[in-house]
Protein 1
Amino acid sequence: MDPEVSLLLQCPQGGLPEDQVRAELSPAHDRRTLPGGDKAIAAVWESRLQAQPWLFDAPKFRLHSAALVPTDSQRPHLLLRLGLTSYRDFLGTNWASSAAWLRQQGAADWDDKQAYLADPLGVGAALTTADDFLVFLRRSGRVAEAPGLVDVPGGHPEPQVNLPLLTLSQPLLLGIARNETSAGRASAEFYVQCSLTSEQVRKHYMNGGPEAHESTGIIFVETQCVRRLQETEMWAELCPSAKGAIFFYNQVQGSPT
């Protein structure tokens, strides 16, 4: 397994549809106040804004924990325990120079090395085209996290890749991975099918969208080649969350042989 990513939870074969996923939102799942207070977070944010004035704060869901729970039927459900956090807190904890110390302190104080971290829940999708290609995006150099690296579409594929919602299947949750380069920030990875060909997807992408500034190019890899992607030069260019998505795609969804 790549040291940049660890696996928090792997879903059953085929993935989980929306009706098998539940979320429990509670202030009890928020991060703990930093030892000595949160002034250090404000200082990191001000420093970041001076270097990258285009950054802006936004609310995020914080992943506290996740567990597969049995039900009366034979279909297990996934329970996500969520709190609230922000992009500002993310940069001031997970991406702070003190992140490793915060994890050690969280383990000592709360028996939870993530207790003091913002840990906003990321979202990514292994997106396949009608002609059996997997879609990747080259991240812009202006984004704060993993600039210039290759990623899977994340957050909401329709504006990022500019695809009409009607061309996308309902997502199946494959698993949750931790990005160990950002102190264990978790990302839920999904499988989504697109009814368009790779060339049609490329044309939609080139037309731009609300978040076109977050990427600089689109890349297609044949699904039959994805299983051995870790053996290629491209693997070193993938950001950790994308590596997690590819691992889950191969293990849970499976690519054609």
Protein 2
Amino acid sequence: MRVSNIISLSAIGASTVLAQNNVTGQLGDAAVTTGNPPGKAAIATLPEKAFWKGSLNGNVKGYISAKSAANGVGIDYELSVSNLPAEGGPFVYHIHVAPVPENGNCTSALAHLDQYVRGEDPACDPARPQSCQQGDLSGKYGKISSSEPYTARFHDPYTSLTEGVGSYFGNRSFVFHFANKTRITCANFAVINTNTTTNTTTSYPSGTVSVPYPTGTGSTPYPTSTGTPSQSSPSATSTITQVPYPAAGSVLSAAKHLAIVPVVVGFLALL
């Protein structure tokens, strides 16, 4: 009996570990983002005043910056914070789905960025970052275990700076928490740099497509203010052959001659 109980408990434990290892979002694992715009970057800088009203020696100071990876796959992040609370760690930080309003209410940032509907529980497994919430940066890349100034750089393949896709965070927010998930402070991301080109890169699930837009100076299939349309049509300097039309007097004269023809024919018939 005791052996059976031990075997049953072992099986339950093994099943639990297996279930945790296989956890994923309702829509599957997060997809790697491609086609992130070259040179595009964003930053969220923490405000002077903390949102949490408890005992703090001023707010946490610092920022999180993000930029498109050199090959357009994923995002490179840098986190730098200081003046951390003496207690309450390890501290966690996330990208939240909604922006912070002007009154600084971090609760209005809502939940973590979670395009694949994974949820917070069970906890993120950093060995399988694709199975975690996209916004759970500390779950994937490390919590902050001390109150000393902290700097980290990491690459996340599952978030994006391509507008219009669910993994885009340029219009979202960054929230810094105590270990018990209480929100200490927060800030909105702001796009700070975009590399301007004549082509626009559009992100699709299977990759990227470069879509040219008219520049106004080249040959395009659409008329532009200064360009030459590619359709075949007479140019402004083309020679157009004019078709001569008879003058009004000539027309009347011809009509008179035609009018006497029946009379002449009838007279000849009497001869």
